[in-house]
């Protein structure tokens, strides 16, 4: 998943590219280079490589040297929103463009852009009592902080520090998200049963609650194929009832995600030493209203869902910050609040979810 291990694999295979390469560019940086000729690494995307020291916001060269990895090809790391140069003349000519077009190294990592578009109130941001979920195939759940948290507790709970807009840190955990439902649907389509996501959500809402609980990050779930079978095997191995219908399978997935969000937010509260009262959910997963309500129910938090296209919105907003059209991250978020609808979910059925969380903990403890 992280660049560091790709490079280590290349070193183990004695790949000559490691020594002959002049510059290593991440995908967003590659596009910036093709437009401008500038070779830099934007902070948010570089920080996900596991090769950057989040304290110094620079390459962790001593660590890389201990691994026997070369560092000569590492470009300068620049902050999100750095104005690089204008589009090269030959590129502009080929595209039929007249005039100078600036190229901005926006927040190149999709979650960094999505978090920039979280419509948090400035007063709420100042209190620090909110967290976010960037919800889609993956669920990225975390908080925005000024400095990285690197200690025994963050290591034990397996949270990571990644770069954000304005030099912030996204202290978060990766959770396998709606991939579970996507893979179930893919298998049912393969088996000749065509069900839309809307139909699957409706069937899940009608299904009996709390038949079983699964760990979304269970190893076999991370690879494609045969997802219903894998879920059934997990349930059998943990002595739980096996879902029997698409609605029961999807409900099990959604309930388990919501319970995992609770475990994750409790970990965040433990590390931070304070209570988080609000969960902002952004991204495509916000369209699943059943999951949004389950998240409120499972966590006991107020959930604010939206906008759907947070990554694109944040990307444009950071670009506007770089050009001076938006003055700050707080102003960007105020614009998002005024421009895009959100839906608020309040927790319900707390007793049933408390009982389910207890069973979920026992399942994960035995899994």
Secondary structure elements and pairings:
Elements: H1 3-12, H2 17-20, H3 27-36, E1 40-42, H4 43-47, E2 52-53, E3 58-59, H5 61-66, E4 76-78, E5 82-86, H6 89-95, E6 102-105, H7 110-116, H8 122-127, E7 130-135, E8 138-145, H9 152-157, E9 160-163, E10 169-176, H10 179-190, H11 197-206, H12 227-237, H13 246-272, E11 278-282, H14 289-299, E12 302-305, H15 310-323, H16 329-339, E13 343-345, H17 350-366
Description:
The protein is built from 17 helices and 13 strands. With about 375 residues, the chain is α/β, with parallel strands linked by helices. Helix 14 (about 290-300) links the parallel strand 11 (about 280) and strand 12 (about 300-305). The longest helix has 27 residues, at about 245-270. It is globular and about 60 Å long. The mean pLDDT is about 95.
């Amino acid at each position: 998943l992280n660049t560091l291990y790709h490079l280590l694999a290349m070193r183990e295979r004695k790949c000559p590219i490691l020594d002959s390469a002049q510059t290593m560019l991440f995908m967003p940086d590659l596009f910036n280079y093709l437009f401008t000729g500038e070779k830099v690494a934007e902070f948010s995307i570089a920080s996900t490589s596991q090769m950057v020291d989040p304290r110094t916001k620079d390459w962790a060269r001593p660590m890389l040297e201990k691994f026997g990895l070369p560092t000569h090809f590492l470009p300068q790391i620049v902050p999100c929103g750095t104005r690089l140069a204008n589009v090269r003349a030959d590129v502009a000519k080929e595209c039929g463009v007249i005039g100078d077009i600036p190229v901005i190294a926006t927040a190149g990592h999709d979650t960094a852009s999505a978090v920039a578009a979280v419509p948090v109130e400035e007063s709420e941001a100042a209190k620090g009592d909110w967290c976010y979920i960037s919800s889609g195939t993956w669920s990225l759940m975390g908080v925005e902080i000024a400095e990285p948290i690197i200690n025994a507790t963050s290591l034990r709970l397996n949270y990571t520090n990644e770069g954000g807009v304005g030099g912030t840190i996204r202290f978060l955990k990766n959770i396998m998200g709606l991939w579970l439902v996507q893979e179930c649907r893919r298998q049912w389509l393969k088996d000749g049963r065509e069900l839309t996501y809307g139909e699957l959500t409706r069937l899940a809402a009608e299904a009996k609650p709390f038949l079983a609980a699964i760990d979304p990050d269970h190893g076999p779930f991370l690879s494609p194929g045969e997802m219903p079978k894998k879920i059934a095997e997990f349930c059998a191995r943990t002595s739980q009832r096996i879902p029997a219908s698409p609605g029961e399978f999807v409900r099990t997935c959604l309930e388990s995600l919501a319970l995992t969000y609770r475990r994750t937010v409790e970990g965040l509260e433990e590390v931070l030493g304070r209570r988080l009262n609000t969960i902002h959910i952004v991204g495509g997963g916000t369209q699943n209203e059943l999951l949004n309500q389950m998240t409120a129910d499972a966590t006991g938090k107020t959930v604010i869902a939206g906008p759907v296209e947070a990554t694109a919105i944040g990307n444009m907003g950071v670009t506007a910050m770089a050009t001076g059209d938006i003055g700050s991250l707080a102003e960007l978020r105020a614009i998002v609040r005024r421009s895009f609808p959100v839906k608020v979910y309040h927790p319900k059925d707390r007793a049933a979810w408390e009982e389910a969380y207890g069973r979920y903990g026992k399942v994960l403890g035995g899994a």
